[in-house]
Amino acid sequence: MNRRVLAILSVAFVIALACTFMVIRLLGSQAKASKPPATTRVVAAKTNIKLGSMITADNLTSIEIAGTPPKGTILDKDKIKVINRGVLSDLYEGEPIIENRLAAVGSGGGLAATIPPGMRACAVRVDEVVNVSGFVTPGMRVDVLISGNPPGQQNSSQGTESRTLLQNIQVLSAGTDYQKDAEGKAKTVQVVNLLVTPEQAELLSLASNQVRIQLVLRNPLDTKVSDVAGTATSNLFTGENSAPKKLLHSKNAPPKYITVVVINGSKITTERFPAPGRHQ
Fold it and tell me: What's the fold here for domain 39-113?
């Protein structure tokens, strides 16, 4: 056979082998890319589950999650650990259940399970418009304002006074409560539960029986506590924005009188003189 033809055939054979190798590698990489990623079967909510509810087997289902599941996700094999635990925040249909969304084992359900250690849930009555319009919903942050007449100043020329009692308070729940009227008939009352410290709970308890309470919505990212002195009805008609004089307490106010004690042997006398700058 001609050497030239043999050389050409040898080169063609080598090229064919190289092309075959490249095609095989390309097909292999495509097959790898098309292979579905590993999945993990986890526990999820079968229906919407409200805050404070106790989870039952009927509330649960299983779903597949591709890749690494989020930290704290309950695996399907551990489903028994979820049953009879309280829900700390609303769960929605198809949502994987995370450990930190559930109350501790044995703590039960209801609002009590959502209260952190050292805190209290204090119920506050609000008017119907505030609640029904969706003004206050769980998780929001509010300021608590009070309006009324300070004790012993019912006839004050300043009129009704208002001041900020608490700031940046978290709303735990909002709903209705049932109480009886003077005739013994049931009536609904709009109630908002606020997450407060024991000291703040005392203030709210006292205020709810003495003055009118109003909740003011604030941005949840705004955690600054402002220095608000308060205001009075009289300021609405004078155009003044400052607080009423009775709400301002000056630590450096000059005394009205100067008292002088004179000791002469066993005799002690006391004299009072007008302080400088004041008229007798």
Answer: Type Iii Antifreeze Protein Isoform Hplc 12 (3.90.1210)
